[in-house]
Amino acid sequence: MSNTTILVVDDNLIIRKILTNTLEKDGYAVVAVSSGEDALEYTRNGTVGCMILDLHMDGLSGYDVLEHLAKNGPEIPVIVLSADWQEATRKRVEELGALGFLNKPPNKNELKTAIEQALNR
Amino acid sequence: MGAGRAAASLEALTGEYFTMLVPEVSIYSAEEFEENSVYGQDNRSIMLHVGGDLNGFTSMVFSIESAKRLLSNVLDEEPEEEDLDLLVESALMELGNVVVGAIVGVFANALELNLEFSTPTLLEGSIGDLVSSGAIGKNPQIIVAKIKFIDSVGTTKGYFVTVFDLASMGVVIPSLDTFLKKQGLI
């Protein structure tokens, strides 16, 4: 599997569809999952070039996923995509090791730039 | 605060132009609020609990028609009939999520509050029912901020409603005072 696979993690079906459609049109391989648990499971078995991660999810939240990756690996560049505009939220996810933070709905150009930065690290 | 950003987010999702009107702020008992709530057969309400420095919830009342417009805007093909309800529900949740996140997030930034949100859920029944159920305390006096949003021809497209217990005002008022002083407004 290519290491440019983008793992989309969001509990909302519409967001998963929007991101999958958009990124596949740009030529990326995309895997979309609906929970933090499924995301961590996928990172154990698949090669991920970049993760796009929602924060507020039932079960394991985006914060939990970031903490888990920081402690246990694997090292994956993570772009958090959240509807939460609080500066405190942005600061917290940066402290937890996220490479980027974008607000929903994502601007296509900003998203593409953030993904290119993540994949070219 | 945040209404412009919320309107821009809605426009990006639905392809429709929105304007948010100046909020109406009122204090109600649960019974009074029931009479004043906004709800309709063709509307659905999405609710998020807000915790942290404040206690309450926010809700967005939105038309199913707008959710369908969002679907047609973001999907390349017509969804299968059996998927439609699930997709409309997801669209409504996401509309609620982005509007609440923008309005409440900007409000929290300005007042230097730290707020936590639940995941959005579809509200069964009315907002008044939720208040009456004791979700934010027994027989609460509540403060309600209601923002109506309209499209380019002035048609009401939905409401954003935020409901906090009065104790939360003990946090908001000093923070608001500090904010206004910093802005040189008082």
DSSP strand tally of chain A: 5
Unreliable stretches of chain A: none
The secondary-structure class of chain B comes to alpha+beta
- One letter per element, helices H and strands E, the order of chain A comes to EHEHEHEHEH
Largest interface, per-chain counts? A-B, 23 and 30 residues
Give short descriptive properties of this protein.
heterodimer, A: 121 residues, alpha/beta, Rossmann fold, five-stranded parallel β-sheet, 5 helices, B: 186 residues, alpha+beta, Chemotaxis protein chec, eight-stranded antiparallel β-sheet, 8 strands, globular
Describe it for me?
The complex is a heterodimer of chains A (121) and B (186). By secondary structure, chain A is α/β, with parallel strands linked by helices. Chain A has one domain: Response regulator (Rossmann fold). Chain A is 45% helix and 17% strand. Chain A has helices at residues 13-25, 36-45, 62-72, 87-95, 108-119, and strands at residues 6-9, 30-33, 50-53, 78-82, 100-103. Chain A has a 5-stranded parallel β-sheet, sandwiched between helices. In chain A, helix 2 runs parallel beside helix 3. The longest helix of chain A has 13 residues, at 13-25. Chain A is globular, with a radius of gyration of 13 Å. In chain A, 41% of the residues are buried. Chain B has 186 residues and is of the alpha+beta class. Chain B has one domain: Chemotaxis protein chec, CATH 3.40.1550.10. In chain B, strands 1, 2, 3, 4, 5, 6, 7 and 8 form an 8-stranded antiparallel β-sheet that branches. In chain B, strand 3 (43-52) and strand 4 (56-63) form a beta hairpin. In chain B, helix 1 (3-14) packs antiparallel against helix 4 and helix 3 (64-74) crosses helix 4. The longest helix of chain B is centred in the middle third of the chain and has 31 residues, at 81-111. The interface between A and B is medium-sized, with 23 and 30 residues.
